[in-house]
Amino acid sequence: MWNLFGALARDIFALGYPGIALALIIEGLGLPFPGDAVMVLYGYAAAEGHFALPGVILCSIAGYLMGTSVAYWTSYYYGPELGRLVDRLPVFNKRSMMRTTRLIDKYGAFLLIPGRFVPGIRSVTSYVAGFSRMDLRLFLLYTGISACLWCSTWVAAGYWFGENATLMMHTLQSYFAYIVGIGALVGLIWWLARRPST
């Protein structure tokens, strides 16, 4: 597994625990960076005895919360001006921004939990939450829950599945969007069935 990451692994591991926090700050800012792969790698390193598992999970969560909070506050305060800049940057997908905006309008802050597991949505949710003036308490609550779930999942995958974690990670990412879509469809059908007829 170490050979897959090469120089990147050596550079990040040279930083120790701050390395994973820094990696997750970058991920939380929505920049193109393989945060989930880094967490798997750190989880594997914890299983090999290089790091303590609780420390890796806590540093991951802390880093991710810092990155997402900066993204939220920046978009909250600079709103339309930042939105126009983000639209022009190649690292942000305009279609993902529009789709995430529609989903947040529909589902509110709850989207922050499953949205963290969906590539494309994960990178822009904090910005969309800030642009839409989502209540800070709701943002921190749902982002905190999602960060705990997301970070713990990937670190634990590396810890328990070791060498096979990379293959498992790619498989899960491929199918997770479909799983979320099916879950949303089931939820919609359930809601429609329970809605009183007018």
TrEMBL record:
Protein name: Membrane protein DedA with SNARE-associated domain
Record organism: Alicyclobacillus cycloheptanicus
Localization per Swiss-Prot or TrEMBL: Cell membrane
Keywords attached to this entry: Cell membrane, Membrane, Transmembrane, Transmembrane helix
Positions of the VTT domain: 33-159
Topology in membrane: Multi-pass membrane protein
Keyword Translocase found: no
Transmembrane residue ranges: 12-31, 51-74, 139-162, 174-193
Family listed: Belongs to the DedA family.
